[in-house]
Amino acid sequence: MVDLRRMDLNLLVTLDALLVERNVTRAAERLHLSQPAVSVQLSKLRAALDDPLLLPGPRGMRPTARAEALHVPLREALEALQQAVAPTGPFDPATAERDWRVAASDYAASTVVHPALAGLRVAAPDTRLAIVRMVPAQIARQAEQGGIDLAFHTLDDAPPELRQRRLFAERYVLVGRADHPRLRRRPTLAQFCRLEHVIVSPDGGGFRGATDEALALRGLSRRVVLSVPHFLFVPSAVADTDLVAMLPERLAARYPTLRVVEPPVEVPAFELVMLWHERVHRDPAHQWLRGHIAASLAERTTGAGRRQVRR
After folding, report:
1. How many whole angstroms separate alpha carbon 285 and alpha carbon 96?
2. What digits encode the pLDDT tens for the residues 202-242?
3. Which of 124, 137, 270, 286 is 20 to 30 A distant from 311 in Cα terms?
4. Residue 260 dihedral angles phi and psi, to the nearest 5°
């Protein structure tokens, strides 16, 4: 058996030309090589395959039985190899059939995926999109192994080995039900601390977050009475009670029935980024999806503007 790892695959291209032309001179012209160079390669092929392959005949060269048996499969193999290494053609979303998998928290699904969804269905109707649970510690491995195409995460915690594109900067606002008696105007810092707060704890069960860190720098603390694992539970929780919450502004804007006010404490903003692995960086389909998501966010920002926040 021939060991392909030790064989110059260019020799197989030469053999294909020789089997087609059955003449060293014409094969050399086909390959843009000199006749002596093709003759040398034919000698190497004979040694590697342990067969004369082509013998002198009355009308050029006559292939041996081994060469005849190789002709069709070799042609098919070279055509398949050529197709495999050919540059990828442009991506046509209108005719594409493809599944995409993105890792996103409920916040990112609401503020990034949702704005892109309607346009995605129109532009690429035969594609499918799966939103999978965001597990920050697994993002890099999932992307490397092909388990996800994209992930949406905060810049500060983004795996450095993944490529990234900044989507937007986000800040926190204070929200409560529309007729909340203590949110008719911006509360003082003391009033803010006395309110009963909901906190989102993605890891589950935590009662401390970025707002508490900001308050601690002033020697203050607030009353956190409810901890939930998802952002999307918060609007319904505050709409039916006197609870309040610090929510990302883009998410709060999706609930016009809530009252949104400027908090009396400044909580550090965060940047949301889109993440992907190097293996798909140049894939035209992947490039199209990334561009579509970024464009949909840009259109939403310029077209709608932000909801007014009471100060």
Report:
1. 9
2. 777 889 999 999 999 999 999 999 999 999 999 999 999 99
3. 270
4. -120, 125
Chosen CATH of 172-268 out of 3.40.50.720, 3.40.50.300, 3.40.30.10, 3.40.190.10: 3.40.190.10
Same fold, 99-169+280-304 and 172-268: yes
Helix (H, G, I), strand (E, B) or coil at 303: helix
Residues 73-122 pLDDT 10s: 998 888 888 777 766 678 999 999 999 999 999 999 999 999 999 999 99
The percent of the chain in helix, strand and coil, each rounded to the nearest 5, is 45, 20, 35
Q: Which residues contact 69 (CB under 8 A, 6 or more apart)?
A: none
Q: What is the pLDDT of residues 235-275, one digit of tens each?
A: 999 999 999 999 999 999 999 999 999 999 999 999 999 99
Pairwise CA distance, residues 149 & 120, whole Å: 15
Are 247 and 173 contacting, i.e. CB atoms less than 8 angstroms apart? yes
The average pLDDT across 29-40 equals 92
Residue pLDDT, tens place only, 141-159? 999 988 999 999 999 999 9
CA distance 308 to 311: 9
Tokens representing 256 are 């016009």
Query: In whole angstroms, what separates CA 132 from the centre of its chain?
Result: 12
Concatenating the DSSP letter of every residue in 187-245 gives PPHHHHHHSEEEEE-TTSS----HHHHHHHTTT---EEEEEES-GGGHHHHHHTSS-EE
User: In whole angstroms, how far apart are CA 60 and each of 23, 24, 32, 42, 110?
Assistant: 6, 9, 19, 15, 72
> Is residue 274 within 8 Å of 113, Cβ to Cβ?
no
CATH architecture of the region 99-169+280-304:
3-Layer(aba) Sandwich (3.40)
Q: Please tell me the predicted confidence (pLDDT) of residue 280.
A: 92
pLDDT at 129: 96
